[in-house]
């Protein structure tokens, strides 16, 4: 029996990405964020979420894509690492996909260690999808910065 992974796929520009569904809490519509002074440039800001505060990371900025033309069309993927939740701002959330182990290739080693959050490349019949390791999407320093935003 091949190991299967369920993942939520999403799009930034023309590229497809996916995150293990076990790390995904929900998907919400983009709502205007409150910018946090002196926060990292890819931290879009904070929003009200389930009686608390949710920091939102702009993945276009984090992954060095051009800024959103219209942020109101963006979606926010609410993800959780340990007991912390934060939002990932993306162009579009696509679907839940089933991934077989044999579909996942090792990520290419291009450009050094910067993209160590890419845990694999999923090959489908018509495309390639970057499998993102949510726990590595932020560096240790960036996680500390994000926690400052939450407090």
TrEMBL record:
GO terms for cellular component: cytosol. Pfam families: CheW (PF01584). GO terms for biological process: chemotaxis; signal transduction. It comes from the Bacteria. Residues 4-143 form the CheW-like domain. This is Purine-binding chemotaxis protein CheW. It comes from Marinitoga hydrogenitolerans (strain DSM 16785 / JCM 12826 / AT1271).
């Amino acid at each position: 029996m091949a190991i299967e992974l369920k993942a939520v796929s999403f799009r930034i520009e023309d590229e497809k990405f996916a995150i293990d569904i076990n790390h995904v809490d929900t998907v919400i519509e983009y709502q205007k964020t409150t910018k946090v002074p002196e926060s990292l440039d890819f931290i879009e800001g904070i929003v009200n979420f389930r009686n608390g505060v949710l920091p939102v990371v702009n993945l276009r900025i984090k992954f060095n894509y051009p800024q959103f033309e219209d942020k109101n069309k963006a979606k926010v993927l609410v993800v959780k690492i340990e007991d912390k939740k934060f939002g990932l701002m993306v162009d579009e959330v696509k679907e839940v996909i089933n991934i077989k182990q044999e579909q996942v290739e090792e990520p290419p080693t291009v450009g050094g260690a910067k993209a160590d959050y890419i845990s694999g490349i999923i090959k489908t019949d018509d495309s390639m999808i970057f499998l993102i390791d949510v726990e590595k999407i932020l560096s240790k320093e960036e996680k500390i910065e994000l926690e400052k935003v939450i407090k």
